[in-house]
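Why do we bother with a discrete structure alphabet at all? Because it lets us treat a fold like text: something you can write down, compare, and reason about line by line. To make this less abstract, here is a complete entry for Xylulose kinase. Read it the way you would read a sentence in a foreign language you are learning: slowly, and without expecting to understand everything at once.
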Amino acid sequence: MAYALGLDLGTSGLRALLIDASGAVIGAAESPCRVSNPHPGWSEQNPAEWVVALEAALEELKEAHPAALAAVTGIGVAGHMHGATLLDAEGAVIRPCILWNDTRSHAEAARLDAIPGVRELSGNIVFPGFTAPKLDWVRTHEPEHFARVAKVLLPAAYLNYYLTGEYVADMSDSAGTSWLDVGARDWSEELLEAGHMRRDQMPELVEGSAAAGTLRTELAQKWGMGRVTVAGGAGDNAAAACGTGCLAEGEGFVSLGTSGVLLAARDGYAPDAESALHTFCHAVPGRWYQMGVMLSATDSLNWLARISGRRPAELTSVLGDVQAPGRAQFLPYLAGERTPHNDAAIRGAFTGLGTETTLEDMTRAVLEGVAYGLRDSAEALKGVGARPEALLAIGGGSASPYWVKLIATVLDVPLMLPAKGEFGAALGAARLGLVAAGEAQADEVMTRPEIGSVVEPDKSLTEAFDAGYHRFRAAYPGLKSIQ
């Protein structure tokens, strides 16, 4: 039997998942990575951290499952998007990677976004977290580094380079750079010129389910493996869509992680940059996906837990059943916001607090504020014709029954909770490895996980939460006017 390996490079660490050709999980290993924040708004990571984490995870799998690892025919890599990894002509890293949640390049993003044709070609607003404004920032503030740039790789593409020795990136990850013509699925000369970059500084593009190269002989020997095909891979959300079987129109998921994501698979290309939706290539040919992103989802609850001296589970365990919204309201803009505001400077707030307000009231308000932020994305997706009849609920926040019921009610859509098991980006990456190695077809292997339960909206609270959402929407302009 053939086996595949999925590598999911997250901001806080790398997860390696070993599966067989049927998709059954054989083993998994994790290794942490550190993030550096040298200045306010800066977020960087040394790519050497990724290699150390990869080596540690593979050594653990080799020790635990040597026979299965030896039978691996395909590897797929998923990674956090938008990171700028700069390499010189010898392939050496020039400076630490500037990560997705780094906001230093907000002025450069605004300049690029204002250039005629940029939104139309890229299909997206140029957000400060995207890759192109990061390079423009380096050009202005670190010209000695910019002058040495021979290649720019995203984090997943850097691991592909380490694994294969080839400069190769996939379409889904590259769509978040503001250098890709997302409709044509190719680098755009106009977008590159706008960002003072050249095509020869870009990696070769392949589909995520296509072969990017072959595992280097020295690595194969070290890990006890044979000839292994390395797939193009995917950005983390596209990989999660592969892991949850969200490939076709009408399929989607809501992810409650540090940030919040509402993603809908699309059969065609229908960008709407003005809405601050992200419109990206999918990891399989001929498909795209659109998503709204909020920057502080579970991070909002974690913040409240931290300042109140409680654990997040403590805060939510006392809430009981979902109730109509109270007077207290929370605007979850702790780190700025993407969809629908594209506002890196806005910050969060409580409103409606009184002497009678309790910590329980504030907890409900935080959970409601995140749910309303996700509804902002749902409304934007409706505007482009994406209307999934049900959504998978994934991410750490989906472990809270109260939050899941609340979000189902605010979005007015059933939420499907997967049964226990793997269904995230690591599984999606492994599935891409299987397809690239010729062991499976995408539609056959990228299926929906077993559903453990379905949470229906509480129709008796629909009107109350509609009113709460409209209060939420009305609060942003006032908050903006005083910041």
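What the structure line is telling us, in plain words: The chain has two domains: 3-237, 247-422+450-483. The chain is about 35% helix and 20% strand.
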